[in-house]
Write a structure and sequence with these properties.
Blueprint: H1 3-10, E1 12-17, E2 20-25, E3 64-65, E4 72-73, E5 80-82, E6 93-95, H2 97-119, E7 121-127, E8 134-140, E9 146-150, E10 154-158, E11 162-170, E12 180-184, E13 198-206, E14 215-221, H3 226-251
Antiparallel strand pairs: 1-2, 3-4, 5-6, 7-8, 7-14, 8-9, 9-10, 11-12, 11-13, 13-14
The chain binds zinc ion (2 copies).
Length: 252
Protein backbone atom coordinates (compact mmCIF):
# COMPACT_ATOMS: atom_id res chain seq x y z
CA UNK A 1 0.00 0.00 0.00
CA UNK A 2 1.45 3.38 -0.95
CA UNK A 3 1.70 6.07 1.73
CA UNK A 4 -0.55 8.27 -0.38
CA UNK A 5 -3.32 5.69 -0.29
CA UNK A 6 -2.73 5.17 3.43
CA UNK A 7 -3.06 8.91 4.07
CA UNK A 8 -6.28 9.02 2.05
CA UNK A 9 -7.67 6.17 4.11
CA UNK A 10 -6.86 7.93 7.37
CA UNK A 11 -7.95 11.46 6.38
CA UNK A 12 -10.57 13.03 8.66
CA UNK A 13 -12.77 16.09 8.67
CA UNK A 14 -14.83 17.99 11.26
CA UNK A 15 -18.60 18.13 10.81
CA UNK A 16 -21.27 19.68 13.00
CA UNK A 17 -24.48 17.76 13.61
CA UNK A 18 -27.39 18.84 15.86
CA UNK A 19 -25.86 16.57 18.52
CA UNK A 20 -22.38 18.09 18.50
CA UNK A 21 -19.06 18.30 16.72
CA UNK A 22 -17.84 15.09 15.06
CA UNK A 23 -14.52 14.08 13.57
CA UNK A 24 -15.43 11.72 10.74
CA UNK A 25 -13.42 10.01 7.98
CA UNK A 26 -13.13 12.18 4.90
CA UNK A 27 -14.23 9.23 2.80
CA UNK A 28 -17.26 7.46 4.14
CA UNK A 29 -16.00 4.17 2.73
CA UNK A 30 -13.08 4.30 5.14
CA UNK A 31 -15.16 4.67 8.32
CA UNK A 32 -14.25 2.54 11.29
CA UNK A 33 -16.03 -0.85 11.50
CA UNK A 34 -16.66 0.04 15.15
CA UNK A 35 -18.55 3.16 14.11
CA UNK A 36 -22.26 3.66 14.75
CA UNK A 37 -24.62 5.93 12.84
CA UNK A 38 -26.29 8.79 14.71
CA UNK A 39 -29.88 7.84 15.62
CA UNK A 40 -32.97 9.58 14.29
CA UNK A 41 -34.31 11.83 17.04
CA UNK A 42 -37.84 10.99 18.19
CA UNK A 43 -39.93 13.95 16.89
CA UNK A 44 -40.90 16.50 19.56
CA UNK A 45 -44.63 16.12 18.94
CA UNK A 46 -44.44 12.37 19.64
CA UNK A 47 -43.14 12.74 23.17
CA UNK A 48 -45.01 15.05 25.55
CA UNK A 49 -43.44 13.26 28.52
CA UNK A 50 -40.03 11.99 29.61
CA UNK A 51 -39.64 8.43 28.30
CA UNK A 52 -37.98 7.40 31.56
CA UNK A 53 -39.74 9.10 34.52
CA UNK A 54 -42.89 10.25 32.72
CA UNK A 55 -42.49 13.91 33.78
CA UNK A 56 -44.54 16.20 31.55
CA UNK A 57 -42.47 18.62 29.48
CA UNK A 58 -43.21 22.34 29.88
CA UNK A 59 -41.32 25.62 30.25
CA UNK A 60 -39.58 24.40 33.40
CA UNK A 61 -39.10 20.75 32.51
CA UNK A 62 -37.24 20.93 29.22
CA UNK A 63 -36.91 18.15 26.71
CA UNK A 64 -33.53 16.64 25.80
CA UNK A 65 -32.62 13.96 23.27
CA UNK A 66 -30.20 11.19 24.13
CA UNK A 67 -27.46 11.35 21.50
CA UNK A 68 -27.08 7.61 21.44
CA UNK A 69 -30.68 6.32 21.23
CA UNK A 70 -32.46 9.49 20.08
CA UNK A 71 -35.27 9.19 22.64
CA UNK A 72 -36.68 12.13 24.68
CA UNK A 73 -35.92 12.68 28.35
CA UNK A 74 -36.00 15.33 31.05
CA UNK A 75 -32.71 16.80 32.21
CA UNK A 76 -32.66 14.56 35.30
CA UNK A 77 -32.90 11.35 33.22
CA UNK A 78 -30.56 12.49 30.46
CA UNK A 79 -28.08 14.76 32.19
CA UNK A 80 -24.90 12.74 31.87
CA UNK A 81 -22.34 13.77 29.30
CA UNK A 82 -20.31 10.75 28.29
CA UNK A 83 -17.73 10.20 25.51
CA UNK A 84 -19.25 8.52 22.46
CA UNK A 85 -16.31 7.67 20.24
CA UNK A 86 -18.26 5.18 18.15
CA UNK A 87 -20.27 8.09 16.70
CA UNK A 88 -17.10 10.14 16.31
CA UNK A 89 -18.13 12.88 18.76
CA UNK A 90 -15.20 15.08 19.73
CA UNK A 91 -16.63 15.97 23.17
CA UNK A 92 -18.73 14.00 25.66
CA UNK A 93 -22.42 14.16 24.73
CA UNK A 94 -25.73 14.00 26.59
CA UNK A 95 -27.03 10.45 27.08
CA UNK A 96 -29.77 8.65 28.99
CA UNK A 97 -28.75 6.40 31.89
CA UNK A 98 -29.00 3.17 29.89
CA UNK A 99 -26.92 4.46 26.99
CA UNK A 100 -24.41 6.14 29.32
CA UNK A 101 -23.69 2.76 30.88
CA UNK A 102 -22.91 1.17 27.51
CA UNK A 103 -20.82 4.15 26.41
CA UNK A 104 -18.78 4.04 29.62
CA UNK A 105 -17.89 0.42 28.87
CA UNK A 106 -16.95 1.28 25.31
CA UNK A 107 -14.79 4.18 26.51
CA UNK A 108 -12.68 1.58 28.30
CA UNK A 109 -12.25 -0.27 25.01
CA UNK A 110 -11.05 2.91 23.28
CA UNK A 111 -8.75 3.90 26.13
CA UNK A 112 -7.17 0.48 26.66
CA UNK A 113 -7.85 -2.38 24.25
CA UNK A 114 -7.84 -0.32 21.07
CA UNK A 115 -4.34 0.94 21.86
CA UNK A 116 -3.17 -2.63 22.37
CA UNK A 117 -4.65 -3.66 19.00
CA UNK A 118 -3.01 -0.72 17.20
CA UNK A 119 0.42 -1.39 18.67
CA UNK A 120 0.31 -5.07 17.63
CA UNK A 121 1.87 -8.32 18.85
CA UNK A 122 3.88 -11.25 17.52
CA UNK A 123 2.24 -14.54 16.54
CA UNK A 124 2.89 -17.78 14.72
CA UNK A 125 0.55 -17.47 11.77
CA UNK A 126 -0.89 -20.28 9.66
CA UNK A 127 -2.93 -19.62 6.52
CA UNK A 128 -5.45 -22.23 5.38
CA UNK A 129 -3.98 -25.73 5.27
CA UNK A 130 -0.38 -24.57 5.18
CA UNK A 131 1.89 -26.78 7.28
CA UNK A 132 4.43 -24.18 8.10
CA UNK A 133 3.56 -21.34 10.49
CA UNK A 134 5.24 -18.01 9.90
CA UNK A 135 6.27 -15.55 12.60
CA UNK A 136 4.41 -12.30 12.02
CA UNK A 137 3.48 -9.09 13.75
CA UNK A 138 -0.27 -8.61 13.72
CA UNK A 139 -1.87 -5.23 14.33
CA UNK A 140 -4.96 -3.22 13.59
CA UNK A 141 -4.57 -0.47 10.98
CA UNK A 142 -4.84 3.17 12.11
CA UNK A 143 -8.30 3.55 10.61
CA UNK A 144 -9.34 0.30 12.36
CA UNK A 145 -10.49 -1.31 9.12
CA UNK A 146 -7.76 -3.86 8.50
CA UNK A 147 -5.75 -6.51 10.27
CA UNK A 148 -2.18 -6.10 9.04
CA UNK A 149 0.12 -9.11 9.15
CA UNK A 150 3.78 -8.42 8.69
CA UNK A 151 6.52 -11.05 8.36
CA UNK A 152 8.42 -12.50 5.38
CA UNK A 153 5.16 -11.96 3.55
CA UNK A 154 2.57 -9.27 4.16
CA UNK A 155 -1.18 -9.56 4.32
CA UNK A 156 -4.07 -7.22 4.84
CA UNK A 157 -7.43 -8.52 5.97
CA UNK A 158 -10.50 -6.32 5.74
CA UNK A 159 -12.32 -6.52 9.10
CA UNK A 160 -15.63 -6.33 7.22
CA UNK A 161 -14.74 -9.59 5.41
CA UNK A 162 -14.17 -11.59 8.60
CA UNK A 163 -17.07 -13.94 9.17
CA UNK A 164 -16.11 -15.84 12.32
CA UNK A 165 -13.58 -15.36 15.08
CA UNK A 166 -12.73 -17.86 17.76
CA UNK A 167 -10.38 -17.33 20.63
CA UNK A 168 -8.29 -20.34 21.53
CA UNK A 169 -7.86 -20.66 25.27
CA UNK A 170 -6.13 -23.09 27.56
CA UNK A 171 -6.81 -24.02 31.16
CA UNK A 172 -10.59 -23.97 30.70
CA UNK A 173 -12.79 -25.56 31.88
CA UNK A 174 -11.14 -25.72 35.30
CA UNK A 175 -9.87 -29.15 36.29
CA UNK A 176 -8.94 -30.28 32.81
CA UNK A 177 -5.28 -30.17 32.01
CA UNK A 178 -3.75 -29.28 28.69
CA UNK A 179 -7.05 -29.06 26.93
CA UNK A 180 -7.39 -26.40 24.34
CA UNK A 181 -10.90 -25.07 24.13
CA UNK A 182 -12.23 -23.00 21.32
CA UNK A 183 -14.51 -20.34 22.67
CA UNK A 184 -16.93 -18.82 20.26
CA UNK A 185 -17.12 -15.07 20.63
CA UNK A 186 -20.84 -14.83 20.32
CA UNK A 187 -22.44 -14.94 23.74
CA UNK A 188 -19.33 -16.24 25.44
CA UNK A 189 -17.37 -14.89 28.34
CA UNK A 190 -14.18 -13.08 27.40
CA UNK A 191 -11.19 -15.29 27.97
CA UNK A 192 -9.83 -12.87 30.54
CA UNK A 193 -13.00 -13.17 32.63
CA UNK A 194 -13.34 -16.93 32.35
CA UNK A 195 -11.50 -17.79 35.55
CA UNK A 196 -8.47 -19.87 34.64
CA UNK A 197 -8.83 -19.41 30.92
CA UNK A 198 -5.97 -17.72 29.14
CA UNK A 199 -6.01 -16.77 25.50
CA UNK A 200 -3.35 -18.61 23.53
CA UNK A 201 -4.48 -18.05 19.99
CA UNK A 202 -7.15 -17.03 17.57
CA UNK A 203 -8.75 -18.68 14.60
CA UNK A 204 -10.68 -16.67 12.07
CA UNK A 205 -12.30 -17.14 8.71
CA UNK A 206 -12.53 -14.43 6.13
CA UNK A 207 -13.45 -13.87 2.51
CA UNK A 208 -10.25 -13.05 0.64
CA UNK A 209 -10.77 -10.94 -2.51
CA UNK A 210 -11.25 -13.24 -5.49
CA UNK A 211 -11.36 -16.45 -3.43
CA UNK A 212 -14.50 -18.54 -3.71
CA UNK A 213 -14.43 -20.12 -0.28
CA UNK A 214 -13.52 -18.68 3.10
CA UNK A 215 -9.87 -18.63 4.06
CA UNK A 216 -8.89 -19.77 7.52
CA UNK A 217 -6.22 -18.00 9.50
CA UNK A 218 -4.77 -19.13 12.78
CA UNK A 219 -2.65 -17.04 15.13
CA UNK A 220 -0.82 -18.68 18.01
CA UNK A 221 1.04 -16.81 20.73
CA UNK A 222 4.67 -17.90 20.53
CA UNK A 223 6.39 -19.66 23.42
CA UNK A 224 9.67 -17.76 23.17
CA UNK A 225 10.16 -14.51 25.04
CA UNK A 226 8.06 -13.96 28.13
CA UNK A 227 7.41 -10.28 27.44
CA UNK A 228 6.18 -10.82 23.89
CA UNK A 229 4.00 -13.70 25.08
CA UNK A 230 2.29 -11.38 27.53
CA UNK A 231 1.81 -8.82 24.78
CA UNK A 232 0.26 -11.46 22.52
CA UNK A 233 -2.13 -12.57 25.26
CA UNK A 234 -3.19 -8.96 25.87
CA UNK A 235 -3.67 -8.49 22.12
CA UNK A 236 -5.93 -11.56 21.92
CA UNK A 237 -8.02 -10.37 24.88
CA UNK A 238 -8.36 -6.96 23.21
CA UNK A 239 -9.37 -8.64 19.94
CA UNK A 240 -12.02 -10.56 21.85
CA UNK A 241 -13.57 -7.31 23.14
CA UNK A 242 -13.32 -5.75 19.69
CA UNK A 243 -15.15 -8.67 18.10
CA UNK A 244 -17.96 -8.41 20.64
CA UNK A 245 -18.42 -4.74 19.72
CA UNK A 246 -18.47 -5.63 16.03
CA UNK A 247 -21.02 -8.42 16.41
CA UNK A 248 -23.23 -6.24 18.59
CA UNK A 249 -23.31 -3.51 16.00
CA UNK A 250 -23.88 -5.97 13.15
CA UNK A 251 -26.88 -7.38 15.07
CA UNK A 252 -28.50 -3.98 15.59
ZN1 LIG B 1 -37.13 12.02 33.33
ZN1 LIG C 1 -30.26 6.73 25.29
Amino acid sequence: MSSEVAARRDAKKLVRSPSGLRMVPEHRAFGSPFGLEEPQWVPDKECPRCMQCDAKFDFLTRKHHCRRCGKCFCDKCCGQKVPLRRMCFVDPVRQCAECALVSHKEAEFYDKQLKVLLSGATFLVTFGNSEKPETMVCRLSNNQRYLLLDGDSRHEIDIAHISTVQILTEGFPPGEKDTHTYTSLLGSQPASEGGNARATGMSLRFAAPGAESLTQLKLTAGEDAHASRRQSTAWLAAMHKATKLLYESRDQ
